[in-house]
Structure formats: C-alpha cells, structure tokens
Amino acid sequence: MTEHLLLSAHDLHKAYAGKPALQGVSVALQAGEMLALLGPNGAGKSTLLQLLTGLFSPDQGRITVVGHDMHRQPSRALAALGVVFQQSALDLDLSVQANLLFHTDLHGMPRAVARQRMADGLAAMGLGNQVGAVVRSLSGGTRRKVELVRALLHQPQVLLMDEATVGLDPASRQHLLDTVRGLCRTRGMAVLWATHLIEEAQVADRLMLLHQGTVRFDGSIDAFMQASQGGDFQTEVLRALDKPAL
C-alpha cells in the first residue's frame, strides 16, 4: 500500500439537540486502503459520513481530503470524493444516461469526456445495454451499480460507501464488495465502507468499530484478531462492541 494520506478527520464532535452523536472520532485513509466502518444502528456511522461529505459541519474537529480543508476549501475537497449514500440519490423517472450526465455537468465535465467515461463505467459493471433504461425499471442491485458508476465518473481519489448494500441480495452485495475492493488495487483509491453487517467488514484492510459515537477499535483485521479472545471474527466483533474498549 502506498503511504499517501488521502483523507484525514481529526477529533470530530457532533451533537444534535444536545445529544452527542460523535465524540472525538478520528479517521485516516491511505491510498489503496479499504477501511470498514462497523457498528450497530445508531453508532454514529451516518453522522460521520455526513460530516465527511460536507452535508453538515462538525461542532469540533477538522477534515481534509487530499490536503484540502473541508471547511476552507469545500469545493476542492468534495471534488476528490465519490459517494454512494444509504438512500438512493438517483432520479427514478430519468434514464440512466440522464442521471449520469447530470452528475458530469455538475462537475463541469466536457460532454465528450463524460460520454466516454459513462460508456466505460457502465461496461465495466455489465450495464452497457442499460444506458437508456429508466431507473425505476431497474432492480435494486442494478441501481446500486449505476450509483457506483456515477460516483466514479469524476475520478475521485476517495470513495465513501454508506450502507451501500442495504436491500441487496447476497450475490449483488458480493459483486459490489468485489468491485470496490478491486478499485483499491487497480486505482489506488481509498475507500471507507460503512456497514452494520459484520461479514462485509472482514474483506477490508482495516477495521474501525464505532459504538455510541466513540471508536472502540481502529486497526488491521489481523491486529484485531490477535487481540481477541480466540473466537471467530463475528463473535469477537460482538464482544468488542459490548464492552467499554479493546
């Protein structure tokens, strides 16, 4: 893995109506690295993703993406991010092509470049014949693939996936995982994969356990298992989330 920091978030705090959602969370992502962010519902995963994508500002802390400060240089920071949200952000009544062109237009991409990247991205996902399909007619798994194609069109260096496999069948979920894992290897992309599914986290390079807005563990899968009590991965994750800290 190339030791090149692409995303850094330091000492993030966020509260809603006085109730803490994140308390001193820090994240660092290197080029080519896949970090699995794992925690139960309500752990703070979505809040963290909302801060990293600039949807909300932290009450305290600093976020930089490829060296650009999210607060001072938001457009440059966001230009380096690709995001697939938990809730679909596609317009169901538009075609795949129209959805993708809307994204490339927002990024100021020339149409010739945009169409070539769209064709390449859809072909890589096995969706070359779906460019004219209305999104509403597509299956959940196919829509997720389209969202991933869209997130990659502007060639971001960091990819954020927020519970991206919710509602997918096992085969579609595995295909999406394999595709994203491959992006780390082939493009040197840094990926933050937020999930509440333990089996998804095991394919990552690194694991971060989040519970009630605090980090319970942050390190390699190997380091996590070496510090365990001898159980399998799922057992040890559940054990870690059920005690104050590792």
Write the layout of secondary structure elements.
Elements: E1 5-16, E2 19-30, E3 34-38, H1 45-52, E4 60-65, E5 68-69, H2 74-79, E6 81-84, H3 96-106, H4 111-124, H5 140-152, E7 158-162, H6 170-187, E8 190-195, H7 198-201, E9 206-211, E10 214-220, H8 221-226, H9 233-240
Parallel strand pairs: 3-8, 3-9, 6-7, 7-8
Antiparallel strand pairs: 1-2, 1-4, 4-5, 9-10
Helix pairs in contact: 3-4
Describe the structure.
This protein has helices spanning 45-52, 74-79, 96-106, 111-124, 140-152, 170-187, 198-201, 221-226, 233-240; strands at 5-16, 19-30, 34-38, 60-65, 68-69, 81-84, 158-162, 190-195, 206-211, 214-220. By secondary structure, the chain is an alpha/beta fold. It folds into two domains: 1-80 and 156-246, Rossmann fold (3-Layer(aba) Sandwich), CATH 3.40.50; 92-155, no CATH class. The strands form two sheets. Strands 6-7-8-3-9-10 form a six-stranded mixed β-sheet, with helices on both faces. A hairpin with a 2-residue loop joins strand 1 (5-16) and strand 2 (19-30). Helix 3 crosses helix 4. 37% of the residues are buried.
Order of SSEs: EEEHEEHEHHHEHEHEEHH
Mean pLDDT: 92
Per the principal axes of the C-alpha atoms, what is the gross shape? globular
Instruction: Return the CATH topology of the largest domain.
Output: Rossmann fold
Task: Work out the count of structural domains.
Answer: 2
Record the strand order, biggest sheet: 6-7-8-3-9-10
What is the strand tally?
A: 10
Q: How many separate helices?
A: 9
Helix content: 25-40%
Helix- and strand-based class? alpha/beta
Please identify, by name, the CATH architecture of the largest domain: 3-Layer(aba) Sandwich
Task: Kindly provide the name of the CATH class of the largest domain.
Answer: Alpha Beta
Strand coverage percent: 25-35%
Q: In angstroms, what is the radius of gyration? A: 18 Å
Regions with pLDDT < 50 over 5+ consecutive residues? none
CATH superfamily of the largest domain: P-loop containing nucleotide triphosphate hydrolases
- State the end-to-end distance: 26 Å
